[in-house]
Task: structure prediction
Amino acid sequence: MRKEIATFVVNGNEYEVIVEPHMLLIDVLRDKLGFTGTKYACGAGDCGACTVLIDGKPSFSCLTLAVTARGKSIVTIEGLAQGTELHPIQKAFVDKGAIQCGYCTPGMVLSAKALLDENPAPARDEIKSALAGNLCRCTGYVKIVDAVEAAADAMRTGG
Amino acid sequence: MAQGFSYVGKRLTRPDVTGKVTGAAMYGADMTLPGMLIGRILTSPHAHAKIVRIDTSRAKTLPGVAAVITHEDVPKLGFTRSAMAEGFPAVAYKGENQDQFILSEKARYVGDWVAAVAALDVYTAEKALDLIEVEYEQLPAVFDPEEAAKPGAPAIHDRWQDNIAGVIEHPFNRGDVEKALAESDYVVEFSGRNSRQKHAHMEPDVALARWDEEGRVTVWSPCQNAHLAKRAMAQRIFDIGEGNIRWITPTVGGGFGARMSFGVEPVCAMLAKVTGKAVKVVITREEDFSGWNCRTEMRQTVTMGLSKDGTVTAIKQRILSDAGAYLSHSGSISAVNMQSTLGLLRSPVISGKATVVYTNNPTSSGMRGYGNPEGSFVLQQAIDMAAEKSGMDPVAFRLKNARGVGEPSMWEPVDLDSCSLDKCIKLGAERIGWTDKWEGWGRKKEGRFRRGVGMSIMTHASGAGGFLLEHSNAIIKLHEDGSAHLTVSPCEMGQGILGVLSQIAAEAAGLRYEDIHVITGDTDVTLFDIGSHASRSTYVIGNAVVDAGKKIREILLKRAAKRLETTPDKLDVREGRIYLIADPDTAISVAQISRDAIYDYGTDGQHITATGRYQSLTHCPNFQAGFAEVEVDTETGVIKILRFVLAHDIGRAINPQNVEGCLEGGACQGIGYALSEDLLIDGKTGEVLTDSFATYKMPSALDMPEIDVILVEDPAPTGPFGAKGVGEPGMTNVAPAIANALYDAVGIRIHSLPMTPEKVLEVLRAKEHEGSV
Result:
């Protein structure tokens, strides 16, 4: 197996990692770099728990070969808060009770961020569509959709 | 009264969510320990096969492999996957329910554990699994519980001649049911079966274990009942004292009952013992789907006798439960099914009997509702049939026949002292618009899309007081700054119990909510508790916290009285401040009292601490009514839920946001259970065919209709601040209410879950055919 040193840009910081061609981005993020907020839940792109943003696009890190993400801008859940100041989406998830076990939360928040970056004022149905690839087994989605709506409002009004 | 609370009844932020939303929360799979190895398990490709030869020599010599173990290397005391060292006293098993070892000498289902490997990394561990050579002798397998129950069926556990794991008579059977049915004016009967719903918690199962120099083992795992698991592992697996096991529960990514059975902990602890290293065992989603743990499939018949005026005269329930390869919880679930099914309505004659059978299917277990969603699907359709037979509105029939205050609860020696089911039914009916939308029995509707409404009611326990071991403990310890550590033993698996118990502690002790820090999830530190299941934590642990809080309050008032030169009865404490009731400006802070108590150089030094306990003698049942409005597409068979209303008797909502979340989430699982979720098993090979989220269809955000949650708050006399349990009941009414709405819309009944478009179409076509003849 051919190993190589690859550079990854995660949450704005550069990291050099020894990778093998078969390695998945989720394994590099979790095992090599310690970004364990990125969750493994299915390994097949069916549930969205491993979602990260690659150049702003929500991507399944469990299906992404690590080498294909070299040099691209990767955002994980750890990259959203500014110090102890939560991102408005994170704050809305907390305030609206959108978090139960929390295992789907990082992927859900990042999918919501990708949506709101593109569409700052989505309708409820548009929110549901954007999150349809992120499974949650706890909440029944009601409060998650509420949270994304509230975050959209807060981000538009600068709140 | 509620306005007098500082924290109870408020939508406060839970202590666990900030870590979860920033990615900082540590789940089992996120943990690493120095020198940690990765463990993987070899599973059987055959449903029933003797292991003739197993050769691990090639696997053992692979560089990076630390250990390979088989059934020859594991203890042979025998344990049950339900992680109970002792059986449920309510369930009379044939003999022994401790029916499995860490690794099997004979494969009893596809996915049964045959060997395990510990290696430097997951890639090496998987390579090693490939190098293990197993020679199987395939045996005839049986997958249908009715076939498995017959004499001459292949015996799955060799020590018994047949596959009958247990026959359970409902303890409150009374009267001659056949005679009562024969003498009834009307008799209705409905048979149905539920699917093997998967818990499908988003976090796959995982465990870490490490033995120390003193021969103690620490296990880290998502476990709903760590104190019981600790004992079962000590007593039934390693034959060591309970004090030699420390069980730590990290952040848990969903439970729903799955984590009240052993997962990979036993094999993980074994690999750690053999290697002398820390080992983490991980599994894949496919392995989770085809491994162990799913809702127990039950085939049931409910027969009801009625008098002409719509009074229930007799109820009879017969259950055949498919335990799968090992017993786990399926016996006790069958017993709880009978409690909730036969204990809901008033009836002079009751007869319940369940037969639990081994098959070569994956091991069943308990899932949210624990027998209640299984029984309700059948009972609530029988109730609607009874209402139709009596010419009564389903709402009126239920109001007439449901038990209420002063009558026996689902576990009969206990009488109900709190029941707001009537109110739930009335409020729910009003919200869905029942009187406008329900047009009466037998009204034929026209057109491709036909709408209907249906309802269902339920009762569920808040813990198992009265029939199981049911007590809990809580410790509150004050710090110099007036903050407190609250040590309790629930499993925070997403339900928000840490916040709820903090709210209760702050209210009861008179502290500030933000000053409560919870210590939990470590059996070395926490006191005994049977864990988070049976919708018990708020009620039972909450009462223990109230007890501890009252004791803290007493100490604080006593010490403050000295300082303020008064008597304790003249004082109150609230939000971290002790004050004169008659003159609230005369006050001293809890911090001051706490600090001065510790730094007392005289004779009265004290670290203010209190231990509370509670033993529940009742199970304080909660009640709920669910209402569905559906639209059925008669060309495709698709049932679209237009609206679901759920009115729940919560006693008191400690945190209404949490209660809504539990009910909405439960309703979502109920919708999956009703319409799409089904663990399909190949009837010839025993292989699980739906082993991914792509094939096992759980609701997504797009599948959720409008859910209308109504909280009915009539404080329960025995609840902490009046609260009852709510963890499980969200899903119970969903499938039966939809089934009854389907009947209202198109006049058909489906006898098995899920109610897929294919089944709906098939029955619709058959009905049309019948009608045209």
In short: The helical segments of chain A are 25-32, 88-95, 105-118, 124-130, 142-156. The domain at 4-79 of chain A is CATH 3.10.20.30 (Ubiquitin-like (UB roll)).
